[in-house]
Write a structure and sequence with these properties.
9 helices, about 15% strand, 3-stranded mixed beta sheet, 2-enoyl-CoA Hydratase, Chain A, domain 1, Lyase 2-enoyl-coa Hydratase, Chain  A, domain 2, 6-stranded mixed beta sheet, alpha/beta
Length: about 260
């Protein structure tokens, strides 16, 4: 699907998505978000890991700036024209955009972003949609939407707060500043920072590691962790018990 600036592949339990518009630093379009959502919905049940990466020197420079206002040659409606539409239609369109990101939170999958160079705006949010982030030393994040008079609306605000806390998340967004790789590792945005020549091998090792435990155990654990912040401690204990009961029954059925 290179005509949309994306490459998809599935190899057994591992799916790969490559942003492939290096001439514009992998800037994104709504057509790409729709294709991402379609790919997520079409994945075989035995896929357990999704790896996202960007071709060239950058992960993604965010939304293609030609789409913000006025005519463009991309066959897409300018973003600012959404403001003239009825409220419910705007909600539906934004939800359609968000679907290109939200499937990466599916408990059935572990998603890994391999980030080099710029990850700006939608690029930052795509990395945030993933469960794990492996960075090269030149990687840097920025939530640029407020600088354009917009808000981050592709699902990145919640994971950002979960990773770095409210105060730092607000500071990052409100100032639109760069968060470089070393700081990203320090504050929890990056799991690992490795030299560029080790990026692919490190992602491969991480992929192999998360594939080692039984799929059901990883699935249930991710679901527990995703919901932990919204539960009381007592409710989390109950959720753990329910998840363990499901695992024990599945194991008994498989090995008993």
């Amino acid at each position: 699907m290179t005509d949309l600036g994306l490459r998809f592949s599935v190899d057994g339990p591992v799916a790969r998505v490559v942003l492939d518009r290096p001439e514009v630093r992998n800037a994104q379009t709504p057509a790409m978000w729709r294709a991402l959502a379609d790919f997520g919905r079409s994945l075989p049940d035995d896929v357990r890991v999704v790896v996202l990466s960007g071709e060239g020197q950058s992960f993604s420079a965010g939304l293609d700036r030609r789409l913000i206002m006025g005519d463009n040659d991309l066959g897409e409606e300018p973003l600012l024209s959404l403001g003239a539409k009825p409220t419910e239609e705007v909600y539906e369109i934004v939800a359609e955009f968000q679907a290109g990101f939200s499937w990466l939170r599916n408990p059935n999958l572990i998603s890994i972003a391999a980030v080099q160079g710029h990850a700006v705006g939608a690029g930052f949010q795509l990395a945030l949609a993933c469960d794990l982030r492996v960075l090269t030393p030149d990687a840097k994040f920025s939530m640029r939407e407020p600088a354009l008079g917009l808000v981050p609306d592709l699902g990145g605000t919640q994971p950002l707060v979960q990773l770095v806390g409210y105060s730092r998340a607000l500071e990052i967004c409100a100032t639109t500043r760069w968060v470089e790789a070393a700081e990203a590792k320090e504050i929890g945005l990056a799991n690992i920072v490795v030299p560029a020549e080790e990026l692919a091998a490190t992602v491969k090792d991480l992929t192999d590691a998360v594939l080692t435990p039984l799929a059901g155990a990883v699935r249930e654990t991710k679901a527990l962790l995703l919901g932990a912040a919204d539960r009381t401690y007592a409710d989390q204990l109950k959720a753990e018990g329910a998840a363990q009961e499901r695992r024990l029954k599945e194991l008994m059925a498989a090995f008993g």
